[in-house]
Task: structure prediction
Amino acid sequence: VNDVTGMMAPMVGNVSAYFAPVNRVAGQATIFDAAQSGAFALNNPPAPWIGLGWIDGFARKCGTKIESVRTGAPSTTTFQARTEIEATVSFSFESWGKLQLALAAGTQQMNLLQVSTGSTPEGSGGAAVTAIVLQAGTTASVLQVGSAAATFVVGELVAVDVDYLTQIGFVGSGVSGAYVQSVLSDVDYVRRVTLNVGRIASIAMNGTAGSITLECPLVAGMPSANMKVSGVAGFCDREGSSFFQEWSAVFVGEGQQGERIIWHYPRLQAMSGVAETNLSGIGGYEKVQLSAAFRALPVIDPVDGQTVVCFRSYVASL
Amino acid sequence: VQNAKDTFYEVLRSRLVALNSYRTIVLRGVVRPGVLVEENELISAVDLPDCFRLRWAVMSVDAKCALPMVTFECAIDYETAGTAMNGGMDRGRALAAMDAELQSAGNATQRSSPKMNYAGLANGLAPVAMNTSIWWGEVAFGKTVIKDDRLARTATVVVMSYQEAGEL
Result:
């Protein structure tokens, strides 16, 4: 530790946010080890963490209650006990994207699948065009779709996931995008809620062989053989519904002397609905930021078996 | 304080050179990058055009910290008449190019740098890295001012540093 700067309060300009999926079925959070990875390059987080850019108005609140146990006459505090452990965190995203929208929405966030001609208008998108079957040779970044590649355009968003076949429970590959409580009839429902979404960087056509290359690898990695591709026109948030987004999160505030404050929440569950923060801008415009608020849920720290909801690490400069 | 001022100048100069190495000036007979610190040069009645002139302005000290934190406002003046080849009709574009260079150099994601002591340069010694880093805020751009045939602007940036023990 630099003995000169080690005693100075960190001067933090921007806070960066990173999220990773929680395995909802297994109840398994993604754990960040600041001892191993605390010095990671901010623009290249270790897998499976996904950088979601800078955040604004980062506010942590501690709701933990400490009660005193008093004895004697007159009574005096004999000891203290924590009766409730509670922590919340809120902020606004500086950038917009699928994951930012999903996290800010709090509940399942719908992909607006390209609709078939004449479909009945629906708030979260009408009946979708038939999804494209993935062919052999598909990877997390290159989707082999045959001659159907001609139906896509560069820059278009696509959702890649399995058909809905009356599953009950968590659905969505890579990240649970929703929880199905009762059987639905929409074969495209999983692709409607999946976070396995990418943007087309290029399209290659060679006769009937065609492929689309994505700007970034899919969150769920290499698609399975039973996944299909649907074009996405946009995204839709809904106020209501019962599902709660749950993610593991890391927030990094970098000091000016090379030190870092790392806040790690193994389990963050959404605690707000769909709302934005409008910041007054120049020329009569307003900057619309996605607001998000989360409640921290507990994990057991295997080091000593304690129940905790968040970790704050200080990684000193060398 | 002087080390922080020197370090900021060196960082800004190297970034500006990387962006546009063709922006040069001739000063005291030497061709050099188009950025200077006014207080380090001979007093001149003429403002050099097409270069960035750094001028250290308001200073304050927060002495409550374990190390005093010094805040210095750096005013960056620049002006241009455009090019003679275009009869000066490109002076707006030339000023916009300087705006873009300063914006890119000053507002880059990394707005901190290890503080260096350049005192040894006079004796042929290499600069020495100190224990702390300087850091600075976003560059704020002032209004466009018309100075005869030139367009001018002053941008300001707040530079901060810790005053280390024994540092003058």
User: Anything to note?
Assistant: Chain B touches chain A through 13 residues (CB under 8 Å). The mean pLDDT of chain B is 94. The CA atoms of residues 56 and 138 of chain B lie 16 Å apart.
